[in-house]
Design brief:
alpha/beta; Rossmann fold; seven-stranded mixed beta sheet; about 25% strand
């Protein structure tokens, strides 16, 4: 599947608020994990790669008011929903128009699964983050493949696969199984990879 076909899919999907919502409950553990891992960056820069409608970016900005938050997505129709105060960039995650080492943190939540070239997307995610900066990826576990209906191009990941890709660019990398809710035992569907450049 080409990037332009994937862009078309998500431009159409932007009208589907049920499956592609513009908000997320801040109590969901995915949100807490991202916010905690990023930490306080002061007036620094944070990039949300594959941001969709900016549901995570909205909370990251609320928790880091002086920070500059950048929402990057392939689909312009998704970015149209990103709240005011957050910068929007329409771009592929394999070619980010963001300067090298210009961000204090970057994260990708359930977006890497749509990349046409996963190693290139991980390399770009790492490239834009400065030394000592934080990177987080939350995505689905390859061991759970088939539990959800997915687009034909979507890819789920082996825990070690992304640890290795992040390890090419980062000093520290760890991963863990996670659940939507902190007090619910993970069921194997979601993984989080947390790294320091």
């Amino acid at each position: 599947m080409s990037a332009s076909e994937i862009r078309e899919f998500f431009n159409r999907a932007a009208a589907d608020e049920e499956h592609y919502p513009s908000t997320i409950d801040p109590r969901i553990y995915h949100v807490k994990l991202i916010v905690d891992h990023i930490g306080d960056v002061g007036g620094g820069r944070i990039a949300d790669i594959g941001s969709g409608k900016g549901r995570f970016a909205r909370i990251v900005k609320e928790r880091n008011p002086p920070a500059s938050v950048i929402a990057v997505d392939l689909a312009e129709a998704m970015l149209a929903h990103v709240p005011a105060g957050i910068h929007r960039i329409a771009a592929s995650m394999t070619a980010l128009p963001i300067a090298t080492a210009s961000c204090d943190a970057a994260y990708a939540t359930e977006s890497l699964e749509h990349a046409v070239d996963v190693p290139a997307a991980v390399a770009e995610l790492a490239r834009i983050v400065k030394r000592g900066g934080r990177i987080a990826i939350i995505d689905k576990n390859a061991a759970a493949w088939g539990r959800l209906e997915t687009p034909v191009w979507e890819r789920w990941f082996d825990r070690k696969e992304l640890e290795k890709l992040l390890g090419r660019h980062c000093r520290r990398v760890r991963s863990q199984l996670i659940s939507y809710w902190e007090d619910v035992e993970p069921d194997g569907l979601f993984l989080a990879w947390l790294a320091e450049k």
